[in-house]
Amino acid sequence: MIFPSKRTEKKSLFLSNIDKVLNFDVETVHFFVANKDFPTKIVAEKFKKALEDALVVYDFLAGRLKVNSETNRLEIDCNAEGAGFVEASSEYKLNQIGDLVYPNPAFRQFVHKNKHFLKPGDVPLCVFQFTSLKCGGFVIGISTSHTTFDGLSFKIFLDNIAALAANKPLAVIPFHDRQLLAARSPPRVTFSHPELINLGNIPIGLESGVCMDSMEELDFKIFRLTSDDINRLKEKAKAGSTARITGFNVITTHIWRCKALSGPYDPNRSSTILYAVDIRSRLNPALPKSYTGNAVLTAYATAKCKEIEEGSFSKLVEMVREGATRMSDEYARSIIDWGELYNGFPNGEVLVSSWWRLGLEKVEYPWGKPKYCCPAVHHRKDIILLFSPIGGNGDDGVNVIVALPPKEMEKFQSLFYKFLI
């Protein structure tokens, strides 16, 4: 265990209704090439010290999840019980472990599982693993409870780790007060929310919602869209549309078509795509950009399979665009209030989560930027991730990480390339 380098205040941290739905771990792997000025032993020491200093500023990371007996709400007990730190080594060199972009299930060995880290029943909110490679390169594997960060606040956390490792002041002062996303009193649900499902009467353990692990056998594949592919999709979307066309909207629509039509075909079946929208700037007043918790909600678009197959691409893109436009201050507050009243989850056929422009690979550590960052392969068939390619500047396209049962994957793959033409 590692602990805050200074004494921290014992307190409880309120979790919003967005945070508490995301009670699962996010595992990321960050690859670094050798740097002769920073042998792995030195990097491990600097990284560990930076983490101990970070646990003072991010005191909740050294805490534990608990249910408040009075309010029956999930919260974080900031009790300084510590985070996990693991040092490991591998007999391989970085250039021997294959294509870093490929979703290699073996990369999960670079991330230590949070569960029961040192004693039974003690589950840290984050565990960091430092794995030194034969070539002097190394891999940092991070497992954090999603209740602690969304993608944007995780990137700020890494920027701050990098600053602390260089003995510099914090890059960004994090804003920890999650009461800004508390439900209104009394809660006011002012919209119907077909993108959410109420699990109130469903027995615990029944698989529902897009956040659950799948028990099926899954194939994992990366589909690479070049900037030319994305521009081609944009041109297709412009036909008959005057709205602003974004790369994210055309990529999401393309994925939606492929996913909706890759299962057993029923023209009258409705397909709903969910996609994450950052609400920081959409609220009134806006949230601080440095807000630490989860400030992401799911927008949605729904259409019948017949319409998805036969309708124009530009119309489908417009539906996806409308889903994001719908996310106003009042709509976001309505979702948060809905979460106060019901035990629920996002409800859709597939969720697209974009890590594409987060910039995890742009974090400037004293020992250099990562060569590549990616999620460890997850077992969730209904979550599709967008990630930057190696190089990370976003100009050379995007990697689409998909996990599907083999037959569905075969169909998805053929549609993916068919619809690009």
TrEMBL record:
<dbReference type="InterPro" id="IPR023213">
    <property type="entry name" value="CAT-like_dom_sf"/>
</dbReference>
<dbReference type="InterPro" id="IPR050317">
    <property type="entry name" value="Plant_Fungal_Acyltransferase"/>
</dbReference>
<comment type="similarity">
    <text>Belongs to the plant acyltransferase family.</text>
</comment>
<protein>
    <recommendedName>
        <fullName>Omega-hydroxypalmitate O-feruloyl transferase</fullName>
    </recommendedName>
</protein>
<dbReference type="Pfam" id="PF02458">
    <property type="entry name" value="Transferase"/>
</dbReference>
<dbReference type="GO" id="GO:0016747">
    <property type="term" value="F:acyltransferase activity, transferring groups other than amino-acyl groups"/>
</dbReference>
